[in-house]
Amino acid sequence: MKVIFATTNNRKLEDLNNIIFENNLDLQVLSLADIGWDRGEIEENGNSIYENSLIKANAVLDFCKENNITYPIITDDAGLFVDALNGEPGIYTARYADAELKQNPDLPKHYVIIKMLNNMLEQTNRECEYRCAITVMFSDGNYEVFDGITKGLIDTKINEPIKKPYFYSLFIDAECQIPFNHLTTEQLKTTYRYTALSKALKFLDLEKKKREEIENIVNQKEQ
After folding, report:
1. CA 112, CA 64: separation in Å to the nearest integer?
2. pLDDT above 90 covers what percent of the chain?
3. DSSP state string for the chain
4. Distances in Å between the alpha carbon of 50 and those of 1, 6, 32, 77, 197?
5. 223 pLDDT more than 80
6. Secondary structure of 156-198 in the HEC alphabet?
7. What is the b/e burial string over 83-111, where b = at least 16 CB atoms within 10 angstroms of the residue's CB?
8. Is the separation of the CB atoms in 147 and 196 below 8 Å?
9. What does the pLDDT read at residue 118?
């Protein structure tokens, strides 16, 4: 079964393909580029990561309907939710310091984590969690939602190396007790995004098998 993952991010596509390979799933991933997506970035104006994931799924579904594409669609949204900041940055995780960076282009690209440290200076509660929401949308508009959560703490310092996702340099995994950007490939497989994607892909593989069984039964009755 071919499935569309609504992204052009190579890292996300690689994660998806790794899950498929490791679990021996009979799925083939197509990116937005593979289906000829030409509508630019989808505006995520929902009030939660679940709403944003569904907004993206519906936007891609509309495109697919117009282009006679019937493959299932996978969309995702994720965010960092910090208790002491009333859940911020949450749905604005990727845009947490956009205003400051726009006002002062000389600021480093990783200013988001500097801003976070400044906002957490007086906070003793440093508990937080990463959340990911996955929508699996079918061509008839029916959909399923899957999620993953990793609990952790905001560190009091930046942990090198600094690279995207920038908050990984601050997020201490509660289970492993080390920064996210220090996790091994195997350790990352237990985290929020990988967990949510695994649930979604295993669901799709099972749906594929169910549909094949129904088709076989119908074919046998017709013979």
Report:
1. 35
2. 88
3. -EEEES---HHHHHHHHHHHHHTT---EEE-TTTTT--S-SPP---SSHHHHHHHHHHHHHHHHHHTT----EEEEEEEEEEGGGTT-EETTGGGTTHHHHHH-TTS-TTHHHHHHHHHTTT-S--EEEEEEEEEEE-TTS-EEEEEEEEEEEE-SSPPSP--SSGGGGTEEETTT-SBGGG--HHHHTTSHHHHHHHHHHHHHHHHHHHHHHHHHHHHHHH-
4. 25, 15, 20, 7, 14
5. no
6. CCCCCCCCCCHHHHCEEECCCCCEHHHCCHHHHCCCHHHHHHH
7. ebbeebbbbebbebbeeebeeeeeeeebb
8. yes
9. 97
Work out the pLDDT band at 113, boundaries 50, 70, 90: very high
CA 92 to CA 75: how far, in whole Å?
A: 17
**Other Cβ atoms within 10 Å of 116 Cβ, number:** 25
Q: Establish whether 83 is a catalytic residue.
A: no
Rounded Cα gap, residues 11 and 103, in angstroms = 30
Q: Which of 15, 76, 77, 205 is catalytic?
A: 77
Read off the pLDDT band of 175 (50, 70, 90): very high
Both tokens of 36, joined, read 């000829």
Residue range 41-62: mean pLDDT, rounded: 96
